[in-house]
């Protein structure tokens, strides 16, 4: 049976073993770098896995998850729920750093998880990406280079497997630019004062219905697959992410408040889904808070219908949505735009690992040529690259040391430009990109040409954490 590109990358990563250079550097400090065994396919998941010597790989994964919880300041995970999460790790590559001299040597002091996903890039297209998660180092072992060894080693493993891009979301903004990652898709939290807003939107012909969490769980991945290519920056959520939205992840508390609603168009096709919960305001029952954890729509009609549904709730004060676009059309559905308070943070981080493959995976907004001199803080991929875009927006990217460079930048700035949400003119003003015609503006300037090529009409976004 032929493998999909994603399956090819997954097996290459799982077969590769731990990175030799990282293992050697950690061994010099008495630490042991190991791959955590996880199932290669759903067929390898025992029907009822248990934390017992009968299933040593479940024991190892449970210990790894205990260390992840500890690293993220979470409580000790519920013992009963740990085995049920085993299936969520199918085809993943997870590593642990072990210190045999600790009081609990079975719990890794460093954890680093990854899975292969598809990153949406401009042009309704996607590229396979190395998604990084669960990066923790035990508080007893911090600031001595364990995270750096894990990151550098795992990025080398991703490159060796043939992946051209890595992605991650962050707990702290200050950690990842040193490894070449750029904040590439921001996340906006929208808090809208319902009564003040003066909402209006075009009429819609479909209908709304409540769903059970199980019905939502079934429909959500299908709808996301239809909409994800419209938003650069999106990746494919795993089953575990959908269980989190649906409240069907074992051991997750406070899911009783979740409500699920679908919008079907006049042909009966599901075009929108929303998940939300309500928080009563004891001091004023007309100011219950409505918190939306997911709003997904495939058409403008569904978008309008879902927002009307939220606004037509009675007894609601603020409507809050997080992980939204900075450029939500709802702004233009409000008579009083100041009823919406929008807070923006960095969210989806992207790091190019192979410049030619990554830049050729997207389309561009304008024909032309630009030559970029790129340096890489980890030395993974660097040099001078000519990007020639044809009238159809397709690029041919060639390594060309002889061409005169139009702009000089690092992997971080190139990765920020890559999915279209960052302006070259902004990066030049910030002193992060140097151009050969410094001070020039307008469409023929270097920044004008880069922005015409790279910028997208749709602001990149990502609708969940991973
Ligand atoms: C973030 C974390 C993984 C770092 O682990 P660590 O082993 O102490 O990191 P290292 O010693 O390898 O440090 C690597 C670099 O990151 C820097 N760094 C480490 N922790 C940092 C932090 N919290 N904020 C900013 N920079 C940090 C170090 O100064 C070092 O910089 P340098 O190599 O350029 O000199 C660890 O502090 C941790 O587990 N934190 C809690 C969980 C978390 O936030 N994980 C990140 C998930 S996105």
From TrEMBL:
Binding site residues for acetyl-CoA: 135-137, 143-148, 171-172
GO biological process annotation, one example: aminoglycoside antibiotic catabolic process
Active site: 176 (proton donor), 466 (proton acceptor)
GO-annotated molecular function: aminoglycoside N-acetyltransferase activity
A Pfam family matched in the record: SCP2_2
PROSITE patterns: GNAT (PS51186)
Positions of the N-acetyltransferase domain: 31-202
Keywords per UniProt: Acyltransferase, Transferase
Subunit comment: Homohexamer; trimer of dimers.
Family: Belongs to the acetyltransferase Eis family.
Record protein name field: GNAT family N-acetyltransferase
Organism expressing this protein natively: Microbacterium mitrae
């Amino acid at each position: 049976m032929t493998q999909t590109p994603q399956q090819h990358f997954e097996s290459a990563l799982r077969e590769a073993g731990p990175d030799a250079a990282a293992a050697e550097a950690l061994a010099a400090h008495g630490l042991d770098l190991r791959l955590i065994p996880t199932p290669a396919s759903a067929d390898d998941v025992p029907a009822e896995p248990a934390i017992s010597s009968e299933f040593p790989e479940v024991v190892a994964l449970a210990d790894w998850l205990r260390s992840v919880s500890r690293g993220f300041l979470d409580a000790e995970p519920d013992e009963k729920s740990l085995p049920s999460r085993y299936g969520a790790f199918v085809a993943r590559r997870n590593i642990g750093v072990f210190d045999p001299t600790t009081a609990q040597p079975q719990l890794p002091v460093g954890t680093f998880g990854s899975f292969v996903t598809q990153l949406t890039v401009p042009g309704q297209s996607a590229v396979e990406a190395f998604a990084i998660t669960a990066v923790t180092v035990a508080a007893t072992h911090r600031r001595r280079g364990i995270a750096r060894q894990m990151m550098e080693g795992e990025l080398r493993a991703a490159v060796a497997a043939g992946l051209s891009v890595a992605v991650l979301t962050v707990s702290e903004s200050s950690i990842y630019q040193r490894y070449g990652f750029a904040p590439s898709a921001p996340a906006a939290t929208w808090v809208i004062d319902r009564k003040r807003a003066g909402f209006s939107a075009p009429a819609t012909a479909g209908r709304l219905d409540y769903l059970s969490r199980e019905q939502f769980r079934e429909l959500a991945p299908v709808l996301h697959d239809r909409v994800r290519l419209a938003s650069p920056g999106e990746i494919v959520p795993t089953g575990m992410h959908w269980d989190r939205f649906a409240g069907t992840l074992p051991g997750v508390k406070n899911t009783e408040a979740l409500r699920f609603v679908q919008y079907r168009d006049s042909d009966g096709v599901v075009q929108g889904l929303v998940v939300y919960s309500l928080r009563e305001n004891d001091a004023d029952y007309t100011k219950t808070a409505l918190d939306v954890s997911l709003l997904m729509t495939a058409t403008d009609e569904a978008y309008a219908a879902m927002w009307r549904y939220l606004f037509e709730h009675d007894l609601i004060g603020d409507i809050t949505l997080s992980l939204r676009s900075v450029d939500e059309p709802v702004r233009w559905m409000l008579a009083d735009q100041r009823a919406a308070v929008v807070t923006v943070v960095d969210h989806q981080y992207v790091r190019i690992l192979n410049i030619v493959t990554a830049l050729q995976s997207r389309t561009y907004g304008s024909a032309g040529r630009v030559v970029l001199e790129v340096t890489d803080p980890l030395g993974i991929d660097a040099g001078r690259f000519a990007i020639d875009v044809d009238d159809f927006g397709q690029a041919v990217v060639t390594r060309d040391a002889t061409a005169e460079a139009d702009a000089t930048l690092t992997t971080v700035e190139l990765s920020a430009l890559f999915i279209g949400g960052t302006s070259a003119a902004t990066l030049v003003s910030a002193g992060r990109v140097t151009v050969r015609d410094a001070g020039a503006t307008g469409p023929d300037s270097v920044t004008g040409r880069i922005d015409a090529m790279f910028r997208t009409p749709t602001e990149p976004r990502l609708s969940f954490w991973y």
